[in-house]
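User: Assemble these into one structure.

Assistant: Restating your components, then the assembled model:
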Amino acid sequence: MSALTVLNPATAQPIATLERADVAEVDAAVSRAVVAQRRWAALPPGARADALRAFARVVEEHVEELARIEVQNSGHPIGSARWEAAHVGQVLNYYAGAPERLLGAQIPVPGGIDVTFHEPYGVVGIIVPWNFPMTIASWGFAPALAAGNAVVLKPAELTPLTAIRLGELALEAGLPEGLFQVIVGSGSVVGQRFVSHPDVRKVVFTGSTEVGTEVAAGCARLLKPVTLELGGKSANIVFDDADLERAAAAAPGAVFDNAGQDCCARSRLLVQRSVYDRFLELLEPAVAAWRVGDPTRDDVDMGPLISAGHRDGVASFLDGANVAFRGSAPTGAEAGDGFWFAPAVVLAAPGDRIAQDEVFGPIVAVLPFDDEADAIRLANDTIYGLAGSIWTENLGRAVRVSRGVRSGVLSVNSHSSVRYWAPFGGMKASGLGRELGPDAAEHFTETKNVFYATDAS
Ligand code: NAP
Ligand code: MG
């Protein structure tokens, strides 16, 4: 075991010291999960539903506490953190409706009855990144539990505190011991053990494309199914027939929300050449109005970056870049030792690093395009395909472009990406499989087909 010091990114001060689990502890947790899962799966569906509703209620009662922990640990503005904590309750409530609705099929066959069952995998391992610690965890554990699985959850080392609290709240709500366990530790030890442990029957990974590819390769060796939610370089496409004022006012939030540490960040702004100059004129005051500061305050749009190392990585994208303008960030005494970074708007060309690589910080690359075909070609010109936005008042164009962009989650005249009752996930290097929506619980099951002979002979 080794000690892990957790920092507040707004101050760089330590807020907790934890022990990292080793492989033996992961193995012990998986053994407990195996036992708990058998009992859980044997419960009546309505009893599992009741237990998840009880968990949801306890989370709802602790929204303020969870939000405050997230502000301290992740630097999310308090308003965002409250939304995230409430979202966990909503996701649990939604999937609490799943146990009685995991319907199989009855297939017409001669000489008997053919029926399918949705059998849980057993133990599911969930590996979570630091950018949205609570919400992303819940997208895995809520449907996995609803489908009759046990869950072992590994939060990111930088942001384990809300996950730990959710594990405690699950027990407080009456979930059985061992059913939902949070294991703090490093990705290369705890995460890797989820991949290699024979009793972890499915892995859900959210994080970088690089690590996700390794996780998928490890799972393949054991023929273990894996869901991957990876990086993005999403396009915000503004056509000349759009409501430019609305599009410009919304653009900072689309990329600078959560300090750009959002896999769905619209980090490429594609603007039709005929309105390019006008759009930048409208964008500049919107970026200037974006409030960066103390995340405990209600009136702040964005807090600090997650770590000093991450800030260095983000800053490297501005080396030699053509910066059009920047927003503000705290300075002097107000900044303290926090990991602040002022948002930046960069004028870019398609082949530039800033136009291709994920920044995961508050930098947007602006590129002009000529026509609809050019916009679709540019939008698809990265290895990623997670999210995107299309701004136009032309319905036919909205339909054509939304069908033409190779991304899993798109919005027209809006930047929304996440509704827990609609599917979420990426194409290309952005992922494999989908989370959320009406089918997510089923994704944590395997179909069993049984033929019952009825012929007496
Ligand atoms: P990361 O380095 O890939 O880490 C993600 C998680 O995987 C962490 O819990 C990490 O543990 C763990 N991990 C690291 N190495 C591992 C290994 N060899 N085996 C198993 N697990 C391992 O990503 P990050 O830096 O935390 O997050 C940023 C990235 O996540 C961005 O690329 C972003 O786009 C992506 N992301 C995608 C989505 C989505 O839904 N598509 C959502 C959020 C983030 P440690 O705690 O030890 O680092
Ligand atoms: Mg990492």
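The domain at 3-230+430-452 is CATH 3.40.605.10 (Aldehyde Dehydrogenase; Chain A, domain 1).
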